[in-house]
UniProtKB/TrEMBL annotation:
GO terms for molecular function: DNA binding; phosphorelay response regulator activity. Residues 6-117 form the Response regulatory domain. The keyword Cytoplasm does not apply. Residues 145-249 form the HTH LytTR-type domain. The lineage of its organism: Bacteria, Pseudomonadati, Bacteroidota, Bacteroidia, Marinilabiliales. The modification 4-aspartylphosphate is found at residue 57. It comes from Mariniphaga sediminis. This is Response regulator. Transmembrane segments: none annotated. The keyword Membrane does not apply. Signal peptide: none annotated.
Length: 249
């Protein structure tokens, strides 16, 4: 491979960043184009510089490595580098090229870089990591949803979500004060949100249970839910069954 692998490091610990940089300087096929100490910086630099490869920590301040991936317009190859082994399966579900468990050796790092070089030769610099993200909900329920709105990143606690509406390839997330559009599927969110607190009432709607004020018959065998702020949402037959199951009526 003649061209160098343009690389960004996203790592909040300075010692870990410096160690990784010292190892990478010995890799003749790697060029470090930026380093970032948190996920917000990472999103900005990755989308601007469009690297071939990102070394990504998982547990970071502000947003996690997995949340960062959801916000990317550019789709680089990913090598996770983390001190936590419990995320390994999830990382490979996100189509990561490799998963380095700290502390790792220089030889182990070079092995990971070789994997990326092989991928680039066979697949090109574009990775399908961003598409993979939507297919795999977390092992635990979401406690927050991260949304990118132009140059701003919003972190929405799940307990502020009133309901979610499907809009083709996107969803609209409604809170008491605002609404946010995110590129996610309803299928993903239905699985990723705590089913004790959220219910799918229609192919177009997921509603927080405590937001429901009443359920009214709309037409024969047709219902609507009315939220506390008087918002009215359609209920499908399957949604009505879901409501009966969760509300025990």
């Amino acid at each position: 491979m003649s061209e160098k692998i343009r690389t960004i490091i996203v790592e909040d610990e300075e010692l870990a960043r410096n160690l990784l940089k010292s190892f990478l300087k010995e890799a003749e096929n790697v060029e470090i184009v930026a380093e970032c100490e948190n996920g917000f910086e990472g999103v900005k630099m990755i989308n601007e510089l469009k690297p071939d490869l990102v070394f990504l920590d998982i547990q970071m301040p502000k947003i996690t490595g997995f949340e960062l991936l959801e916000l990317l317009d550019h789709k680089p190859h990913i090598i996770f580098a983390t001190a936590y082994d419990q995320y390994a399966l999830k990382a490979f579900e996100y189509n990561a090229a490799d998963y380095l468990l700290k502390p790792y050796s220089k030889d182990r790092l070079m092995e990971a870089i070789d994997k990326v070089a092989e991928r680039i030769q066979t697949e090109g610099t574009h990775s399908d990591v961003a598409e993979k993200v939507s297919d795999y909900p977390r092992e635990e329920f979401l406690d927050r949803i991260v949304v990118k709105d132009r140059h701003k990143i919003h972190i929405i606690p799940v307990d502020q979500v009133r309901y979610i509406e499907s809009m083709d390839d996107y969803v609209m997330i409604y809170t008491p004060d605002s609404r946010y559009m995110k590129q996610k599927t309803m299928k993903y969110l239905e699985k990723a949100l705590d089913h004790r607190n959220f219910v799918r009432i229609h192919r177009s709607y997921i509603v927080k249970v405590e937001e429901i004020n009443e359920i009214q018959q709309y037409e024969k065998e047709s219902y609507i839910v009315i939220l506390h702020d008087k918002t009215k949402l359609k209920v499908s037959k399957t949604g009505y069954k879901n409501l009966k199951d969760i509300l025990n009526f």
